[in-house]
TrEMBL record:
Keywords: Membrane, Transmembrane, Transmembrane helix. The keyword Membrane applies. Pfam families: Oxidored_molyb (PF00174). It comes from the Bacteria. This is Molybdopterin-dependent oxidoreductase. The chain crosses the membrane at residues 27-48, 85-104, 111-129, 135-156, 187-209. It comes from Dietzia aurantiaca. The keyword Membrane applies. Residues 510-531 are annotated as: Disordered.
Length: 539
């Protein structure tokens, strides 16, 4: 009896095995595809911000969304192992999804690919919707998912539509199916490549993530230097903000504080590794480390920081209680030489600012800051050490992640943004802003409390006026001033009449200078002009 023939016509053992790929290979394809998608997504994300990793973003979202009871129970049961347990659980689920995706995928029926696309969309959404995330955070995951789909298509393609399978019967005997058997060689090469991609991307992601994780862990355990009572920021007086819903708080929360920098990836530098080198036109070069800095007497000061790129009415301004050390004292220890007029500061990522030495030594609260609102500096606000200089826009003064100070001269050095056409000295211009009611709010006729803020750091705010349509300028009610270096809140009782109305605001600084109406763009010295808002008032 011809066994070969019997098998071909029978239930299909030998040659048939050559045609229809075994389940294990299909499942493996799915697992490898999911692995490629995840590891690539993670590695690309880690190059910017590890929190954008699909894996970590999903895990973090699960933690955030878990009902408190569940969270407590798992922490109770698993102790501090709850996060690893979650990650392991997530990995098992992904492994299963990979197996299912592989088993479902057919060359002409890409159901497994669809599963990976869904997985990618879930990861991308989780990343983009993280509290500090942005739509851009979806990109690493989507790229990873795209490569994952390609991987699955190639692997399954090799399993189903290969050239003649090695080791199968000669074509003459089992034609025509032999030419469509699995291409084992191609499958193995592709699978091996996928494993290599997963290993390389995984290792990259872990290496990039570890540095950031080190910094996060260090910051969590970091104790800010103690501030003696006499060095605490003066208390914030009662009534510092008007009593009305929706007014801007006097102190800006760390999470709400605007962020501006050129860093694609938030620089990761530990306090342990941090050094500040003070050199250039000085009598003595100094190298300061964290312990050397924090052994000094710390101060706490409330200062309003502003970005030169802030448009009229914009939000690139915020106020925080900064903990730090007087820059003037550190400069005095180095001893600037006569003729020096600039401090060129450099961050760990190579960004520079040129600050007039005068602004750092004239008695204002210029700080080398380590704390923000009682917390160590958030990573994106300059951890572990940054500068805060009242009265100057951030681009000439507020260097984050600062590691180098060169005392020099304006005619010998220039800094990052001045090289790109922005002004050299960067004093903050007087500005005022309407914060409530919200833009285009629908209002009812009658009393409407209008409120906002105004700032002119180093000069202070003496007066704020509001104008309704083409009416006269009327004084707004000023909340108490905290200091020359902080914004001042104001409110205005408006007897609103039905119709469409435009309100303008203008401030007068402590020198009696009225904010100019002239509209100027942010480049090169900061925007000017009066802020306005239009409201519809119904009867
Ligand atoms: N290293 C570094 N520091 C920087 C910048 C930067 O790009 N890199 N931008 C500056 C600018 S333009 C501003 S307005 C402030 C903003 O500080 P914040 O992000 O903490 O609000 O940081 C300043 N410090
Ligand atoms: Mo800025």
């Amino acid at each position: 009896m011809n066994t070969a023939e019997a098998h071909t016509t029978g239930s299909g053992q030998g040659p048939r095995r050559g045609r229809r790929p075994i389940a294990a290979a299909r499942a493996l394809s799915g697992v490898l595809a999911v692995g490629v998608a995840l590891s690539l997504g993670h590695a690309i994300a880690a190059a910017f911000d590890t929190a954008a990793s699909p894996f970590l973003a999903v895990a973090d979202s699960v933690v955030d969304r878990a009902p408190a009871a569940v969270r407590e129970m798992t922490i109770d049961k698993l102790g501090t192992a709850d996060k690893p347990a979650l990650l392991i659980g997530l990995s098992v689920i992904l492994l299963l999804i990979g197996i299912v995706a592989g088993l479902l995928e057919r060359p002409r029926r890409p159901i497994g690919s669809a599963v990976i696309v869904v997985l990618g969309v879930v990861g991308a959404l989780a990343a983009a919707l993280r509290p500090n995330g942005s739509p851009l955070w979806a990109l690493p995951t989507l790229l990873g998912a795209a490569v994952g789909v390609v991987t699955l298509r190639l692997l399954v393609g090799a399993l189903y539509r290969g050239r003649q399978a090695s080791g199968s019967a000669p074509p003459a005997e089992s034609a025509p199916s032999a030419t469509t058997g699995p291409d084992r060689r191609r499958f193995l090469i592709l699978a091996g490549s996928a494993v290599a991609v997963i290993a390389a991307a995984g290792a990259t992601g872990v290496a990039l993530g570890r540095r950031a994780a080190d910094v996060v862990a260090e910051r969590t355990g970091l104790r800010l230097p103690r501030v003696l009572p006499r060095q605490k920021a003066p208390a914030v007086p009662a009534g510092i903000v008007p009593e009305a819903p929706g007014v801007t708080p006097f102190l800006t929360g760390n999470d709400e504080f605007y962020r501006i920098d050129t860093a694609l990836r938030v620089p990761a530098i530990t306090a342990r590794d941090w050094r500040l080198r003070i050199h250039g036109m000085v009598e003595r070069e100094i190298e300061l480390d964290w312990d050397g800095l924090t052994a000094r007497e710390a101060q706490e000061r409330i200062v309003t920081l502003t970005c030169v790129s802030n448009e009229v009415g914009g939000g690139l301004v915020g106020t925080a209680a900064w903990t730090g050390f007087p820059i003037a004292d550190l400069l005095a220890e180095a001893g600037p030489l006569p003729g020096a007029d600039m401090l060129l500061s450099t961050s760990v990522d190579g960004w520079t600012a040129g600050t007039p030495l005068e602004a750092l030594t004239d008695g204002r609260d210029a700080l080398l800051a380590v704390g923000m609102n009682g917390q160590p500096l958030p990573l994106e606000h300059g951890y572990p050490v940054r500068q805060i200089v009242p009265g100057l826009y951030g681009y000439v003064s507020a260097t984050k992640w600062v590691i180098d100070w060169e005392v020099t001269r304006f005619d010998q050095a220039s800094a990052y943004w001045t090289d790109r056409g922005w002004g050299e000295r960067g004093p903050i211009r007087t500005a005022s802003r309407i914060d409530r009611p919200a833009p285009l709010a629908e209002l009812e006729a009658g009393l409407v409390v209008v409120a906002g803020t105004a700032w002119a750091q180093r000069r202070g705010i003496d007066r704020v006026e509001v104008r309704v349509d083409d009416g006269p300028w009327t004084d707004a009610r000023l909340s108490p001033a905290y200091s020359l270096d902080t914004w001042r809140m104001w409110s205005f009782d408006w007897d609103a009449e039905p119709g469409l109305h435009t309100l303008h605001v203008r401030a007068t600084d402590g020198r009696g200078e009225v904010q100019t109406e002239q509209r100027r763009p942010t480049v090169p010295d900061g925007a000017t002009g009066w802020h306005n808002r239009t409201f519809r008032v119904t009867a």
